[in-house]
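Morning run. Coffee first, then this:
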Amino acid sequence: MKSIFFKAIASLVLLSSVCASNALAENQQISVDEVVSIFYQRNLDLIAAQYNIDQARADAIIASAIPNPTISIQILELAHNLNNNAAATGCPSTPGNSCGPAQYYSFSQLIEVAGKRGLRIESSNFGTQAAESDFRDAIRIFSNMVRGAYYQLLQTQKNAWLAQEIVDHYAEISKANQLRMKGGDISESDFLRVKMEGMRAQSELDAALTTVEQAQADLAVLLRWPAKSLQFEAKELWPEANDFKQTLSKEDAINKALQQRPDLEGDKLRADQADKQLELARKLKYPDVTINAGYSRDPSNNALNSGFVGVSLPLPLFYQYQGEADKAAVNLSQSRLTAEQTELNIRNDVISALAAWNSTNKIVQRFKDGLLDDALTVRNSSELSYSKGAASVLDFIEAQRTYKNIMRDYYAAEIARANAYYDFEKALGIPLDTDKAPVTHNNKKAP
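And here it is:
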């Protein structure tokens, strides 16, 4: 499962980076999936290093290593006329004869008992899997963070488009009012009121464009400032309700999250690792055995060539590693408590995210079911009445402001709904390669 995940990450990064390059070469429009892919293309190695996956794998190799044997060579009885006239079988007693030094060759091998090596291997494997789970959890969190920055940019763009529409609208009205004022249909004060509203709209447009640049810079920082990042334009992408797991009940959603969330998986793996470490600590009181064997050639002895074999082991008479066992037991208890706390947090995350989705989805639907049309109708009716002299300038300006506020609230609701969609995916722990692609809407202007 883990290898499939990492392959999916690599494939997505490669494919999306090509798509992103083609898109940016044309007009710098970029989708939410392309933003996420660029982020991991430029940050994946840093994130992996931060969560020490390579170090965990190296620790697993160390834990599985078999102790190396020790070879010893000793040359003894070094002196002038060594073993001269020695009364030994290995060295004939001949005047002036030197039989040479004694030579000892030995071999020793540590043999671990009570399955300590196997426990170390199991413990380190759990540690490696926990590090990989932490990495996948970082993918889950960072993906949502990047999406949030993307939709923040989209919201500022939508507000800027709306501000531009308002400016253009007031420009047309001002031209018509200038002719009406010359014809005596409206007073100069009414003309100036509309003109001032147009100037206010222009100021709001300037502020909106500044906010767009700030949002582009914030996204560029997350993406580590790729080329043309300040020219990125977010496509208008909204998650569709039918892509969502609406049919899941609260309990089903919680159970799904408990099965998929990598943070809970990592905590459980660390608890399993702590359990193996406790078992290993309790096995330390069983001493490991060192086997020794060797060969000697000693001319000064009656036996010129001889061999030996022996066994050595430490005796745990005064200390039986109780401190290590107690420390490992405390670590196990803490790991289990952490996993339980994570499970409680997951339940809360799912309930909160589901409630936010249901709420924001209803709000957006309420806008689409008539509130947007009503705001546009009121604005057009007020404008028509004002042009015929049937409505005051204050009523006209108020209708314009109401339309503008309704549209801003709608854009904010759409952004909140999109964030709630991905927050719920994050709460469920849906892997990156199973994310649903949002639906593209090409309309850039405010409706």
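The CA atoms of residues 255 and 347 lie 9 Å apart. Good start to the day.
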